[in-house]
Design goal:
Blueprint lengths: L1 E2 L1 H23 L1 E4 L2 E4 L2 H25 L12 H21 L13 H9 L1 H11 L3 H17 L4 H13 L3 E2 L2 H30 L3 H9 L3 H15 L2 H9 L1 H9 L11 H10 L6 H9 L12 H9 L3 H22 L2 H15 L4 H19 L18
Antiparallel strand pairs: 1-4, 2-3
Helix pairs in contact: 1-2, 1-17, 2-11, 2-15, 2-16, 2-17, 3-5, 3-6, 5-6, 5-7, 5-18, 6-7, 7-17, 8-10, 11-15, 15-16, 16-17, 16-18, 17-18
């Protein structure tokens, strides 16, 4: 029996949304991005069901294209490890010196280096290159830099990405006593550090001093762990967001028809480039919802509408959204299965739950775009790489 990170994530998100659904029905509403919104039980139930329609679609596509056995193992040499390490270090230094790319804070970048990092996408390339690195040492070193970079920018989600990435690198993993022990230890360490990670996230976003942060850490008690668990569960769910969008579906649909925000298919780096070249406005629904629906007109942060939220506002046009998801994932998975290996299919499937399912469509599209581009260039031998064809062997960890 093997361990599937995709099914673990699917179960986690389903459970988080179920718990939030029950509490939302009981409380007559939900706390969404710091404000309480009254929501009907009917809206919450419809939102939950719509979410699971998309979970079913993501699962069916995953089951269609993922295979645990490969005749080909796509591996990248030390040169790639060095390249992505240098890129991440330069990106980290640039962000700290310029004070840009911090979550929830208005960015004042726009120089040549800023555009260079947008094009190279260090975070995305780390995941795609790190997954195929042959050297465990280069992989581990890059993971540490990635986590430091994410935390310094006020993002806690990097921890989840690295955890999934580590598991996908060793896919398929056979379930054993050793596997369960290692997994339990990792979860215990993560749980023990949870309040620290959350406080560090807000410290970076608010500019808290080191001394103030240490004082807060020294005051951590059992209550903080309870609050940390509730915070994480709230971040994993978006049933409340979808229910709120269902109740304002007509308003959002009208805004969509008036081009108040870009359509779902225009979210991504290549599409954004075209919009910018043509001089068109480029506002994502993630930010529009915060400004127009959640009541923060001057906010620079964004929220997660979910694929279900998009379907709610699109109404009869939602059919095209379903087709978009099926074609995008089917095409990318088929390409990666043929030219890379099952680890890349598994990683993109997991990212479809972390990003696409939650409505971060552009972020997920970028992962797909750079994964295909990386594998394509390597297979054309336009970059130095190492691709081996060992016989299949199951990883035991």
């Amino acid at each position: 029996m093997t361990l599937s990170p995709f099914f673990l994530l699917l179960a986690l998100y389903s459970f988080a949304n179920l718990v939030s659904l029950l509490f939302g029905i009981n409380d007559g509403g939900m706390l969404i991005e710091g404000a309480f919104f009254e929501l009907s039980g009917e809206s919450l139930i419809y939102a939950f069901l719509l979410q699971h329609v998309f979970l079913l679609i993501l699962w069916l596509i995953y089951r269609t294209f993922y295979t645990a056995r490969d005749s080909l193992r796509f591996q990248l040499g030390a040169g790639y490890g060095f390249f992505i390490l240098m890129l991440q270090l330069f990106f980290l230094a640039y962000n700290q010196i310029q004070g840009v790319n911090v979550a929830g804070v208005e960015s004042h970048g726009g120089g040549a280096l800023d555009y260079l990092f947008i094009l190279l996408a260090p975070d995305v390339l780390f995941v795609m290159i790190g997954l195929g690195l042959k050297s465990g040492k280069w992989f581990g070193l890059n993971c540490l830099v990635f986590l430091a970079s994410m935390m310094l920018r006020g993002w806690m989600g990097g921890v989840l990405v690295v955890m999934v990435l580590v598991v996908c690198r060793h896919t398929p993993i056979r379930i054993s006593l050793r596997t369960l022990l290692r997994g339990s230890i990792a979860l215990f360490i993560f749980a023990a550090m949870l309040p620290v990670l959350i406080e560090a996230k807000w410290a970076m976003r608010t500019g808290l001093s080191v001394s103030e942060f240490i004082e807060q850490m020294l005051a951590v008690g059992l209550d903080n762990y309870g609050e940390a668990v509730r915070y994480v569960m709230n971040r994993l769910q978006h049933v409340g967001h979808v229910a709120l969008m269902l109740e304002h579906a007509s308003q959002l649909h009208e805004a969509y028809l008036k081009d108040a925000f870009i359509p779902y298919w225009a979210d991504g780096l290549p599409q954004m480039t075209v919009y910018k070249v043509l001089g068109l406005d480029y506002l994502r629904i993630n930010t529009y919802l915060v400004n127009a629906l959640l009541g923060y007109p001057d906010a620079y942060w964004n929220t997660n509408p979910g694929l279900a939220g998009w379907a709610a506002l699109l109404q009869e046009r939602a059919v095209m959204l379903f087709l978009y998801v099926i074609v995008l994932l089917g095409t990318v998975y088929a390409f990666l299965r043929h030219y890379a290996d099952s680890r890349y299919v598994m990683m993109l499937a997991c990212l479809s739950l972390i990003y696409l399912y939650h409505g971060w469509i552009g972020a997920y599209f970028n992962f797909c775009f750079y994964a295909v581009l990386l594998v394509f260039l390597c297979r054309l031998r336009l970059r130095p790489h190492s691709a081996e064809r060992p016989t299949y062997s199951e990883n035991r960890v």
